[in-house]
Amino acid sequence: MQGRDLNEYSPSLSSTSKPLSCNDQLCELGSDCKSSKDPCPYLANYYSENTSSSGLLIEDRLHLAPFSEHASRSSVWASVIIGCGRKQSGAFSDGAAPDGLMGLGPGDLSVPSLLAKAGLVRNAFSICFDDNHSGTILFGDQGLVTQKSTSFVPLEGKFVTYLIEVEGYLVGSSSLKTAGFQALVDSGTSFTFLPYEIYEKIVVEFDKQMNATRSSFKGSPWKYCYNSSSQELLNIPTVTLVFAMNQSFIVHNPVIKLISENEEFNVFCLPIQPIHEEFGIIGQNFMWGYRMVFDRENLKLGWSTSNCQDITDGKIMHLTPPPNDRSPNPLPTNQQQMTPSRHAVAPAVAGRTPTNSAAVSPLAFPYWLCLVNLLLVLMRLFVLDV
To answer: Are 329 and 119 in contact (CB under 8 A)?
Structure first.
């Protein structure tokens, strides 16, 4: 999507859009409507201070193409829900997410949930960020057999978010002996946040192992920044998170380079911030260089190293255009929405999809920066040209 103009999605300019009515099973705020035929409203509050979005829910089409070098260019379109924001606050008012947010969480309104319930793909997806901070989403991707993985854990008894258990952590080869913590895996958060006590242990040990001069950088939200000459090679320690069964997630290059006014020096910062909560947030910067697999069907997070150009494995769906311009997978009916999942999880997690060959392969959705959000597809929608 790099190089494309970013334009607001406007339902009035789309011949295929229609409001989601208040009596639809997917309308969570239907009880607030004056009439069951009114358009369904939404309200999304975010962890960022005073950040929210509210407006109306719209049904429209998302175009998808098979991910394969040898696949035909045929495509299908899927019905999805878009939140058209009428009132934004906080970070949105400051220009955050100008291209909108794509909902990828376990909730009924998210894109993976709708695609899986329609039987188009398996109930999983992968996301990969490359060194240029762009990458690929593959809907239906359950990853490699050889990938490492850890189980999602419930929040108050329900699987309503992508939460994992961190049992230990290392900086370089130094293991830090302290209690573990739970962390939300969220690519919608640009950087990583850790519980305060754990943050302090990691950054202090990281600072000990850095062979560069500690400095401050104007405008940086991070305390641990370093100067180095343009000729100097930094020995940057790795940061490793250890999960159950000794599964290690290694962040090989945990720093980011900032633009410096002095061309003779480079400025590097460790983009981790403390959070005064019991849980942490694993953001985009910890995911660079990995193919992150959100296997909702088996309730696992998987990962394998990737440059985001080598994702050619797995079974590929050969899509054909729908006959008579009809959707091959309309929004789930009320009966489908009320069908219990085969897993003992919250209703927000979509049920397992059929295991036939036409429903197991990943679909590609190249993107600029696709953000994982737990609630809605907000404000604007990118559609893949095929």
So the answer is: yes
Per DSSP bridges, beta strands 248-251 and 239-242 are antiparallel
**How many whole angstroms separate alpha carbon 278 and alpha carbon 56?**
34
∠ Cα 9 10 12 (to 5°): 155
Amino acid identity of residue 144, one-letter, is: L
Whether 368 contacts 361, CB under 8 Å:
no
Q: Are the CB atoms for 287 and 305 separated by under 8 Å?
A: no
Instruction: Give the CA dihedral 166, 248, 342, 332, nearest 10 degrees.
Output: 90
Q: Nearest 5°: phi and psi at 196?
A: -55, -50
- Cβ–Cβ under 8 Å, residues 58 and 17: yes
Residues in the chain: 386
- Angle formed at CA 70 by CA 67 and CA 72, multiple of 5 degrees: 75
Q: For residues 205 and 274, give the distance between their C-alpha atoms in angstroms, rounded to a whole number.
A: 15
Per-residue pLDDT of the chain (386 residues; tens, 9 = 90+): 444 555 677 888 889 999 999 999 999 999 989 999 899 999 988 877 788 899 999 999 988 877 655 555 567 788 999 999 889 888 888 877 777 788 899 988 899 999 998 888 899 999 998 877 678 889 999 999 999 999 999 998 999 999 999 999 999 999 987 778 999 999 888 899 999 999 999 999 999 999 888 887 777 889 999 887 755 667 899 999 999 888 999 999 899 888 766 666 788 899 999 998 889 999 999 999 999 999 999 999 999 999 888 766 544 333 333 444 444 445 544 333 322 232 222 222 222 223 333 333 444 433 322 223 322 222 222 222 22
Closest by alpha carbon to 149, among 279, 284, 292?
A: 292
**What's the CA gap between 78 and 96, in Å, rounded?**
27
Q: Which of 146, 126, 124, 137 is nearest to 360 (CA)?
A: 124
Q: Return the bridge partners of 42, or none.
A: 55
Instruction: Record the tokens describing residue 172, joined without a space.
Output: 């370089």
User: Six-digit token pair at 340?
Assistant: 């219990």
Q: Which residue matches tokens 């983009």?
A: 271
Q: What are phi and psi of 16, to 5 degrees?
A: -110, 0
CB 122 within 8 A of CB 116: yes
